[in-house]
């Protein structure tokens, strides 16, 4: 019971801080920024303008520099006027795989999404409030290891040519992919 209360309190605090942070002006996007430049060490200490990829009416930011826990990842996306990723179709999944390949190369990256089962036993995309219907879990996942894996990460693993999902501990720092339908935030 104590652990349950603690988790609830943590969630409440993070939700409050998310709203506070999302009230700030969003940093917009400079599409001329080179991905490779962003990944260089000299830019890691600064808050970079973020290049976006477009699929349908959505824009995506591949956050391969910043790392935070599930809640911090959400704050990070909100700060930029976006939401953490919701992978809602095989087409969206395939788009991400094709775009991440030239961006990330051979490195393995783990990205937080908006997927969570914190609220109850069902998986939902927190960014949309909708249940997770399309799914791309690794074969043995979700396994809720240690009864403590309540958040959904996408694992980009080029060595095995996979980009599949795993449930993981929400407090572990990871990169994040952000998604938005707000084209107004894009400067060309
Ligand atoms: Ca989506
Ligand atoms: Ca797992």
Task: Please characterize this protein's 3D structure.
The protein has a single domain, classed as Roll (Mannose-Binding Protein A, Chain A), CATH 3.10.100.10. The chain is built from 4 helices and 11 strands; from the N terminus they run αβαββαβαβββββββ. Strands 2, 3, 4, 5, 6, 7, 8, 9 and 10 form a 9-stranded mixed sheet that branches. Helix 1 runs parallel beside helix 3. The protein is globular and about 35 Å long. The structure holds calcium ion (2 copies). The site of one calcium ion has 8 residues, from strand 9.
Number of helices: 4
Main sheet, how many strands, which sense, barrel?
A: 9 strands, mixed
Helix content: 25-40%
Radius of gyration: 16 Å
User: Which percent band covers the strand fraction?
Assistant: 25-35%
**Element order: H for helix, E for strand:** HEHEEHEHEEEEEEE
Fold-level CATH name: Mannose-Binding Protein A, Chain A
Bound molecules: calcium ion
Please name the defining characteristics of this protein.
9-stranded mixed β-sheet; single chain; 188 residues; Mannose-Binding Protein A, Chain A; 4 helices; two-stranded parallel sheet; globular; binds calcium ion; alpha+beta; disordered N terminus
């Amino acid at each position: 019971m104590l652990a349950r209360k603690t988790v609830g309190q943590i969630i409440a605090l993070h939700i409050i801080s998310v709203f506070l942070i999302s009230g700030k002006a969003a940093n917009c996007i400079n599409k001329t920024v080179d991905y490779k430049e962003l990944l260089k060490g000299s830019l890691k200490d600064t808050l970079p303008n973020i290049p976006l990829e477009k699929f349908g009416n959505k824009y995506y930011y591949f956050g391969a520099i910043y790392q935070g826990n599930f809640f911090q990842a959400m704050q990070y996306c909100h700060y930029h006027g976006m939401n953490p990723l919701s992978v809602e179709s095989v087409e969206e999944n395939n788009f991400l795989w094709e775009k991440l390949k030239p961006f990330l190369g051979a490195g393995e990256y783990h990205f937080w999404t908006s997927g969570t089962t914190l609220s109850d036993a069902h998986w939902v995309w927190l960014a949309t409030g909708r249940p997770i219907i399309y799914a791309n879990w690794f074969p043995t996942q979700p396994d809720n290891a240690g009864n403590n894996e309540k958040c959904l990460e996408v694992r980009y693993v080029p060595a095995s040519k996979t980009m599949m999902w795993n449930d993981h501990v929400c407090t572990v720092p990871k990169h994040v992919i952000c998604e938005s339908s707000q084209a107004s935030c894009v400067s060309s």
